[in-house]
Amino acid sequence: MVRQAIRITVERRSTKIIDELNGSPQISQEARQLIDYYESNKTRMNYPQYKKIGAGIIGSGAIESPHRTVVQKRMKQSGQRWSRRGAQNMLNLRVTKKNNRWSKIVELVKEDFFREAA
């Protein structure tokens, strides 16, 4: 049942799972929670579309560890407070650095500096 539900979900048929669970004579608390989860998140479970655009990994596990090292390690230091804009700017820089694209930032800053100096 679980493997079938996963396959159906990946194939973008979460409505079928919801219908099957709702059609059961007795719905357990866990099944009700699953139905609620699917109903709340089915728009984000468009896995065929993600695959089509080359998104690759499906699931949150692959992002949780990088989130700790890229985001939390920098953003949650003692005494720090961030505006939404400041936090987004800092995260953009962190991601650029972690993706080994820092030289591109340096290039852009130099271009801007020399443009203003001219």
Q: What do you see in this structure?
A:
With 118 residues, the protein is mainly alpha-helical. The protein folds into 2 domains: 2-52, no CATH class; 61-117, no CATH class. The chain is 70% helix and 0% strand. The protein contains 7 helices and no strands. The longest helix has 16 residues, at 102-117. The protein is elongated and about 75 Å long. The termini are far apart.
Brief sketch in words of this structure:
The chain has 118 residues and is mainly α.
Structural features:
mainly alpha, 2 domains, 118 residues, 7 helices
Low-confidence stretches: none
How many domains? The number is: 2
Q: Give the N-terminus to C-terminus distance in angstroms.
A: 68 Å
What proportion of the residues form beta strands (DSSP E)? under 5%
**Gyration radius from CA atoms, angstroms:** 22 Å
- What is the helix tally? 7
Could you give the topology of this structure?
Blueprint: H1 2-10, H2 14-22, H3 29-41, H4 47-52, H5 61-75, H6 84-98, H7 102-117
Helix pairs in contact: 2-3, 5-6
